Each structure stands twice: as structure tokens, then as C-alpha cells.
Amino acid sequence: WGIGYSGVFGVNSEVLGLIVGYLGCIPPQWDRTHLFRVRPHKPPSAQTASPPALTRSPAGPPRIHPWSPPLSDLHAPSWGCQPQTWGTFPHKFGLQVKATLENISKLRPDGEDFRWYLKLKCANCREASDKWQYISLMESVPLKGGRSSASMVQKCKLCSRENSIDILRDTIKPYNTEDSERFKTVVHFECRGLEPVDFQPQGGFIAEGAESGTRFSEINLLEKDWTEYDEKIQKSVGVYEVTHQFVKI
After folding, report:
1. Model pLDDT for residues 181-230, shown as the tens digit of each residue
2. Which molecular function GO terms apply here (predicted)?
3. Does the predicted TM-score (pTM) go above 0.85?
4. Domain housing 124
5. Distances 197 to 18, 115, 118, 131 between C-alpha atoms, Å
6. d(CA 44, CA 67)
7. Contact 177, 210 (CB under 8 A)
8. How many domains does the chain have?
9. How many CB atoms lie under 10 A from the CB of residue 196?
């Protein structure tokens, strides 16, 4: 059997045993054709005397053949046997806000101490937090290796993986009069191993009168509505029906 398979696949019996063992733990829902490509059969005279050596791709683990995809390209479910992951790559999520504005514009967070209250989910074990956690531009925690930092670094209570989330300062945008009653992305978060699933606006917002330019501070949107009176134009101003959603960028 080892000789026969070696003639078909172009690999020795030990390497073939590793492949068969790996395939044995793959769920039937997976397409096994993506794991490796079978070398076309050649007559004995055209076969090489010795099997090709394993080659290492700079992008991942060893490959069976130079033309076969690395194991890191496989997308395994969160259960059962899955290939080893080779590092946690950052993913960006945008927070989109929609509200109805009345005689007001440039609704935005005030200062670097503004707190973004979020609920987060671990991308590895899918465990979601049931408590609100906040991040701000003032807080910065170094990541492992010291090459960069994040607004928050935490270890998952279920799978013990270290995850992080960072506020991208240059992506913070105001919500203006022309944005009223439609979704607009107001900030981006760069996540490693985390995914934001909920947002709670609280205090710390500021805005300006659309006609008068009057500055309004300490706007609290916890109740999803806020109203005030603009003395310059003698009209009421307000923010109503605040809602949100997350989009992956």
C-alpha cells in the first residue's frame, strides 16, 4: 500500500500517513479537496527516484507540495479538530449611528477622555461579555512584543486568549444636520481577537446649533433622546431616536 500510494501521490508512506491522519479528523462538511492537490499519475519511467522534500512557505507552515495551499489558509469552525492558527490578525469594525437632529449639528464626542461603552465578543470561543466595558483615547496598553499598543487588552475568561481593541483616532467623525435620519460611520475600532456587538451612548457629547452656532456640552444620550433650548434663535434643539449598528470594514 505504501508503495502504491507513493506512486500515485508522489510522497512516501510516512508523509501519506500524516495526511490520512489529518483527514480523519476533518468534519464531513469540509471540502477536503482544498487540503492538497493530487499530482497527476505518471508512468513508472517518468517518476522521480526520491519523493520531493517538504518545503516551507514564508506565509505559513510546511507544504506537502510547492503548489498545495498552506494549512493556515483553511477556515475551520470553532468546534472539533481545526488547523493551528498562525497569529491573530487585526480586523476593523465601524460604529454607525443614526438619529434625528432638530436645529443642531456637529454632534461628536468631547475630548480624549470620552468613554465608548461597548459589549465585546471573543472571536475565538464566541464568548460575549454581559457587562459594559469602556475604552478611551487617554488609555493605552502595550501589546506583547512592545511594537504597538491598544486602548484595551484583556484575557478571555473562557479560552484564556489575550485580545485587544484600539480606537483609531483619525476616524472619529461628527454627526451633522445632513446626516439626520440615516446611518453614518462615526468611528473605527481595530480589533485583535475581539468583536464589538453592542454600544451604549452615555454622557460626554457636544454639539452646535445649526443656525446659531451655540455650543451645547455635556449631552447625555443614554435615554436615546436629548432636548434643549437655543436662546439665540428662540427655538428648541434636540437629538432623538438614537440607534446604531456595527459594520466590518
Report:
1. 999 999 999 999 999 999 999 999 999 999 999 999 999 999 999 999 99
2. zinc ion binding
3. no
4. 91-248
5. 40, 16, 7, 12
6. 22
7. yes
8. 1
9. 19
